[in-house]
Amino acid sequence: DDDSALIYERLEEAGGFLPYHDKSEPQMIKKEFQMSKNAFKRAIGRLMKEGKIRITDTGISKIES
């Protein structure tokens, strides 16, 4: 999925943490990732199921493998 790949790439560029999560404001997600909040939630859900990220109250973190 392109959205998942984009988010994961941004996460790596940011050093493994981004301050966005499923409770972030839709406008912030649109501005940062150029996607809807629903698309963002689907993408981070996929990354979480793949074991690549962890979602916290403060954002998303890359899980080191």
In order across it, which strands form the biggest sheet?
A: 1-3-2
Question: What value does the average pLDDT take?
Answer: 95
Structural class: alpha+beta
Distance between the termini: 20 Å
Features:
65 residues, alpha+beta, 3-stranded antiparallel β-sheet, 3 helices, 3 strands, globular
In short:
By secondary structure, the protein is an alpha+beta fold.
Could you describe the 3D structure shown?
By secondary structure, the chain is α+β, with helices and mostly antiparallel strands. It is built from 3 helices and 3 strands, in the order αβααββ. The chain has a 3-stranded antiparallel beta sheet with strand order 1-3-2. A hairpin with a 4-residue loop joins strand 2 (53-55) and strand 3. The radius of gyration is 10 Å and the shape is globular. It starts with a helix and ends with a strand.
Secondary structure blueprint with pairings:
Layout: H1 2-13, E1 17-18, H2 26-33, H3 37-49, E2 53-55, E3 60-62
Antiparallel strand pairs: 1-3, 2-3
Helix pairs in contact: 1-3
